[in-house]
Amino acid sequence: MLLPDNIHPSQTVYYNASFIIAQMVKDGSSEIITLYYKVNQENSMSFSMFQLCLDWLYLIDVIEILDKGKVT
What is the pTM (predicted TM-score) of this model? Predict the structure, then answer.
């Protein structure tokens, strides 16, 4: 669920995906692990939340995930 009504907004996919988008704008493309490390320095999130955000961003065509683990 993207917008649950029973948790703090900072724990939603929308909120956390914004940090991924901001980092992608700064860096362009990067490896998934490198991207997670940089995003986690800005906003602490679990790897599972990071994966959910990547999935959502991919589904709405904001990012592309290449075969070798590179995100563009």
Answer: 0.87
- Full pLDDT tens readout for the chain, 72 residues: 556 677 777 888 989 999 999 999 999 899 999 999 999 999 999 999 999 999 999 999 999 988 888 999
Q: Residues 20-51, buried b or exposed e (16+ Cβ, 10 A)?
A: beebbeeeeebebeebbebbeeeeebeeebbe
Q: What is the SS3 assignment for 10?
A: helix
Q: Which residues contact 63 (CB under 8 A, 6 or more apart)?
A: 20, 24, 54, 57, 71, 72
3-state secondary structure of 9: helix
Residue 40 CA: distances (Å) to CA of 4, 46, 60, 65: 22, 8, 22, 19
